[in-house]
């Protein structure tokens, strides 16, 4: 049965408005990044009168953007690897085994997502500072401390998500692996992990994006040498002026790794997020 014409026109109008709403800010960023500073600071023009690529060269000189890039890649990459590695073992144990306190563990993992991040800012700050004074382990102001901080936020969701994905994998695969002589760990690496690749990729994308764009903890837990991109972009605003064209150019450059990674892995992300919805 064909859809009514009114429905088709309503859908077209809605999709057009939605596309405009999404694309318009991107166009403003791109056009502003190609303008001289005096043109950006004045009245906004939809069609730039003069186009220059100078802001894309200046962003590396105004602030040490390359150092911030390295810090963000190291922190986000390490947080992603550790989060996925720990979540795989924890989710496999919760999914495949029954143990005392399993329900309490599951509820505790989910309950951590109910609290806002700012609630943990002061406690973590005091823990890092006091631990550094007592043991000499410098977590405050270091990449390691920021990685550990991001693990506290990405791990609970990662464990919960992978547990649901492992539950959707038939247990007959585990039994078949045992028949072939595989132990629990060997079965996990040779059977379960290959079958759970979409879910693992989805968890990795979530952990990376969480760490890449986080601002609150990065602005408090870092110093000038360990500052990440999300905080480093503030360096384009000085007491006298704001380099808006460089802000837009740097924002576009910073977004490239996430956008490219998302486009390359989106099929795994969709499959991982919808896994277990129908059984």
TrEMBL record:
Q: Which UniProt keywords apply?
A: Cell membrane, Membrane, Transmembrane, Transmembrane helix, Transport
Transmembrane parts of this sequence: 12-30, 68-92, 104-127, 147-166, 187-209, 243-265
- Which superkingdom is the protein from? Bacteria
* Principal location class: membrane
Q: What range(s) does the ABC transmembrane type-1 domain occupy? A: 69-265
Among InterPro entries, the record links this protein to: BP-dep_ABC_trans_perm, MetI-like, MetI-like_sf
Entry's SUPFAM superfamilies? MetI-like
Q: Which PROSITE patterns match?
A: ABC_TM1 (PS50928)
Concerning its family, UniProt says: Belongs to the binding-protein-dependent transport system permease family.
- What protein name does the entry list? Carbohydrate ABC transporter permease
């Amino acid at each position: 049965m064909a859809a009514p014409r009114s429905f088709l026109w309503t859908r077209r109008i809605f999709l057009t408005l939605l596309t405009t709403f999404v694309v318009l800010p991107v166009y403003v960023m791109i056009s502003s990044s190609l303008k001289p500073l005096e043109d950006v600071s004045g009245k906004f023009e939809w069609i730039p009168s003069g186009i220059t690529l100078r802001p894309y060269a200046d962003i590396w000189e105004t602030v040490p953007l390359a150092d911030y890039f390295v810090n963000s890649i190291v922190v986000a990459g390490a947080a992603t690897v550790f989060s996925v590695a720990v979540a795989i073992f924890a989710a496999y144990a919760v999914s495949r085994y029954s143990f005392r306190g399993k329900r309490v563990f599951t509820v505790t993992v989910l309950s951590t997502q109910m609290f806002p991040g700012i609630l943990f800012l002061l406690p973590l700050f005091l823990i890092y500072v006091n631990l550094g004074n007592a043991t000499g382990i410098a977590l405050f102001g270091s990449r390691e401390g920021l990685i550990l901080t991001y693990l506290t936020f990405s791990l609970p969701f990662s464990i919960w998500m992978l547990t649901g994905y492992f539950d959707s994998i038939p247990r007959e695969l585990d039994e078949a692996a045992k028949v072939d002589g595989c132990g629990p760990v060997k079965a996990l690496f040779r059977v379960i992990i290959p079958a759970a690749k979409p879910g693992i990729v989805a968890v990795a994308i979530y952990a990376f994006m969480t760490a890449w764009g986080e601002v609150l903890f990065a602005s408090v837990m870092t110093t000038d040498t360990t500052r990440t991109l999300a905080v480093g972009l503030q360096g384009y605003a000085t007491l006298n002026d704001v380099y808006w064209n460089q802000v837009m150019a740097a924002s576009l450059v910073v977004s490239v790794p996430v956008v490219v990674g998302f486009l390359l892995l989106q099929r795994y992300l969709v499959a991982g997020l919808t896994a277990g919805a129908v059984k």
